[in-house]
Each structure stands twice: as structure tokens, then as C-alpha cells.
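Protocol check, entry for the methods section draft. Step 1: assemble the input record (protein sequence plus ligand SMILES). Step 2: submit for complex structure prediction. Step 3: store the C-alpha cells unaltered in the notebook. Ligand used here: S-adenosylmethionine. Step 1 record:
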Amino acid sequence: MFAVTPKGVEQVAARELAALGAEEILPDAGGVHFQGDRALLYRANLELRTAERVLVFLREFSAATPEMLYNQVRRIDWLQYLRPHMTFAVNCVISKRGAPGGPNHSHFTALKIKDGIADDLRKRAGERPDVDVEAPDVRVHAYVLGKRCRLSLDATGEGLHRRGYRQATGAAPLKESLAAALLELSGWDGESPLVDPMCGAGTILLEAAARARGLAPGLGRERFGFMGWTDFDAALWARLVAEARARARATAPGPLLGFDRDGRAVEHAREAARALGVAGDARFEVQELAACAPPAGGRPGLLLTNPPYGVRLGAEGGLEALYRQLGDVLKQRFRGWRAGLLTTPDMAKHVGLKPSRRIPLFNGPIECRLLLYELY
Ligand SMILES: C[S@@+](CC[C@H](N)C(=O)[O-])C[C@H]1O[C@@H](n2cnc3c(N)ncnc32)[C@H](O)[C@@H]1O
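Step 3, stored output:
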């Protein structure tokens, strides 16, 4: 199997997979190879916080021409996975690292694969299944690197970052899987106080509350790709969900505090906290960065935030001043704390503090760094 992750998050997902009992774990660019049984496949979908989707490997082959691709696809017995009354779809990803010589048009490649599958089913079962790109029973995933093509079944469907707790978001929310990875990479222990002074729709705090409560991220979802498969084991799934529910704790140690100057974003964060059932754990208030201070109680914790970069939110003037202000707040008020900032490499220098680590990450297509600080 292969767990697709945001770039830079592979090692974190590998540790999560090890904790679930996966075997033959091998981090690669953009994901992690691993092995396991059906229960592990279901648990990976239910419990991985930092992965985007889970693929089940079918076959890899070389195909220099569309005809070769079609013929290779037809060498699989698709009746194992699909019946004529079922629907299917094919997604194709062509790697940008691609060696020359292979297909370079993902839509055309997907069509060729779809034809091969439909013709195979027509030959074996007398009828072909229908295509449904929105909600197919079976989604076939093709990964093309040069002339090599790897076919897998997509066990996830809609990306795993769709936890089901969020309706509306602010202008530039983090993906839940990346927010969960930031918490891991910054070494948050799940118990110390956590503050996000520019929390937007609250993703970091919401993921923190879910982790601290031991809430499996997939508990709020109704559907996963593997539920449409011919071998879907509903009893096994129900048992794994019940076990995950039983592991959840009633409260998070906290405090988990999110602030933002934007009242609408704060309202979105509160709504999501209610939907997730953590409104008593993660608290959100409208507040300017300038007013941010550690919570009463004196226990040091982690300040983790994703300030505006001026890329997706538009090139606002005054961003440099905002980063200087953030640096001042950290130096003057958060002594003894640790801090993590996800930002672009060029914004980092305006903080005026020396990070102890710089971890390269991608927020979607935007190259970022997670900067970690020890605030003595
Ligand atoms: C990139 S967004 C954070 C997104 C957030 N991580 C999420 O997942 O939704 C940056 C946030 O910083 C907030 N912000 C910008 N300047 C601020 C300030 N001076 N004080 C408080 N919040 C501020 C913006 O309102 C915005 O919501």
C-alpha cells in the first residue's frame, strides 16, 4: 500500500503507520510504502492524521505507447474488483520528475486505462460498468513516471483531510493533514498549553484537540473509497470504528487557545469545534496579535502558528511589520515556551529570532519552512 502525504511529511506519516502496526514501511517522495492486512487498510484510513489518501497497489508495468498501456491494463482480471452494475473512475497523476518517453497527458492516459478496464469487463462479464467521476464504487489511481505506470485502487476517495467537522473556512485555511503534521514536527506532547495567535479557521487547534482527545480523524466521515469495493467487510469496519470510539478521552488537558483579528474566521473555528465535539477543549477569541500573552497558570507550552505570507492572501503591505511584531511578542512574553511558525523562506528573516530548526514543507504548491524556536 502507499499512503500519500503532503511533501515533507513522509517521515511523520511513517511513524504513524508504525504505531498502527504496518510493516515494510518505506518513506518515498510524497508518501510512504507499507504493507498490512485489510484491518490495517481500514485503520490507516480511519486513524492516519498526516496522510491524504491510501492506495492499494495492483500492478506496475512499462508502457511507451497508448496501445501498450491499453494492453497492459487488460492483463489485469478486473472482475476481481468490479462488476458490471458497479461504477468506476480513473485518476491519473503524471510525475513531474518524469523520465522522457512516457505519456504526458493525464486525461488521455486515464481515458486509455478506462477503455482497457471497460473492455476487459465486457469480455469477462458481457457488460461494461458505467463511469462516475464524482462518487464511483471503485476509483483506479494511475501514477506515471516516464514509461512506468503504477496502477492502484484508491481506498480513500475524498481526501483524508476532509474530516467532516468543517463547513465554512476563512480565506486561506491549512489542510488538516498538514496542521496535524506541524503539531508532530514541532514536538507537541498533546498535553502542554498550545496557543495560535493567528488561528484563522482554527485548523491547528482543532487538530490538536482531536489528538489530545484521541479522536480518530476519520470518525466524522461517512464514506471511504473501500466501502464501495466488492470485498468491503462492514462488520470489520464497524468493529474498528467502535474500538476507535472507545479509545477517545472525555477532555483534553489544554489549554488550547486560538486568536485571530478576523471575527468571521473565529466564528468558523468555533462552529468546527462544536461539530468536532471539542468546543470545551479548544477556545477561540477575537484578539489582535499585539495583545497575545500566555494563558494564566504559568505552565510553558507551544505557540504554533501560520501567519499570512502575502501569497494566497494577496500581497498586503505591512507583513514585515507583522513578523517583527510576532518576534517581539515571542521574545517579551513567551519566555520558556517553544514556538513554531509555518511561513515562506523570505518572511522568516523578519521575525528577528534565530530558529533552532528549519523544516522544509509545502503548503499546497507554496514552498514553506516550519521554523522552530526555543524561547529562553
Ligand atoms: C494564513 S491565515 C491562518 C490560517 C489558519 N492556520 C487556518 O488553518 O485557518 C493567517 C491569519 O492571520 C490573521 N491575522 C493577520 N494579522 C493579524 C493580527 N495582527 N492579529 C491577529 N490575527 C491576524 C488573519 O486574519 C488570518 O486569519
